[in-house]
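Weekly structure sync, notes
Attendees: PL (lead), two postdocs, one rotation student
Agenda item 3: pending single-chain targets
PL asked that the sequence for the first pending target be pasted directly into the notes so everyone works from the same version. It is reproduced below exactly as submitted, 305 residues in total.
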Amino acid sequence: MVTVQKRQTRRRRISAGQFTLVGLLAIYTLFCLLPLLLVVIVSFSSKASVDAVGCSFFPQSLSLEGYQYVLSYGSQLLNSYGVTILVTVAGTVLGLLVMSMYAFALSKRDFRLRRFLSLFVVIPMLFTGGQLATYMIYTSVYNLKDSIWALIMPLSVSTMNIVILRTYVQSSISESLCEAAKIDGAGEFRILFQIVLPLMKPALAAVGFMMATAYWNDWYNGLLYITSASKTPLQLLLVRIQNNMDFILQSAKLSGGLLNAAQKNLPQTSATMAVVVTVIGPIILAYPFFQKYLVKGLTVGSVKG
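Predicted structure, written out during the meeting:
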């Protein structure tokens, strides 16, 4: 009887502790969501409301002025979306292919070049030639000025991602499985593509999501290497939209405050928030589909390593 009472008391304590933890996590989640919610609300707020009450969760009036200004770029906005999607998909697939092969080679304990390749991939993480040297290599040696490849190659390989993939292979895929495939006559490429890669789905999804996010948010490489409008990525276009708004308002101030009708009605704040929503919207929609694999891949790739 005493044992039963102790168990019931312990269950009550656990339930109370779990309830407290869930409550704290809910509060933390709410504080994380509030800034995002504010951005969305302000993007739909009218210029008059922003001028009157500022950035508020309860605007006086709603409007699509910010989105209308962003969408006024029309075909260029759609073209930049297409470029960013192409770069994100191609760069992520290419990077996962190259890094998974590299990680598979490093996971082989009997591979003769293992130490050399490990050192080879770690050195760039510790020592770099600098931005000027990188720019000269991509433009003068690789001749990638104003090329889509200039947006893909700089982010395609990462030392940390290779380490995560290698650790996942070593900790989650049995060497006996690969040896059994060798006995059956399978080569290294067949083992990689038919056995190892299907078992690496959690790690590939985790690394792939991080790579896709990096590609999607990248605008600096576009600023350095892209000159034509047809190859301008989305983030660089949105940066230019923001700069154009700042230039218009700054020019109006320098001219003595003589604003025309278009300048007076320029919804700078709401348009800025609309730009933010345009950028982060697809990533937020994609995150729930990768969350399970992201957590599992990072946990196995880091803790067990």
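Discussion points:
- Residues 301-305 have pLDDT under 50 and may be disordered.
- DSSP finds 15 helices and no strands in the chain.
Action: rotation student to compare against the earlier draft before next sync.
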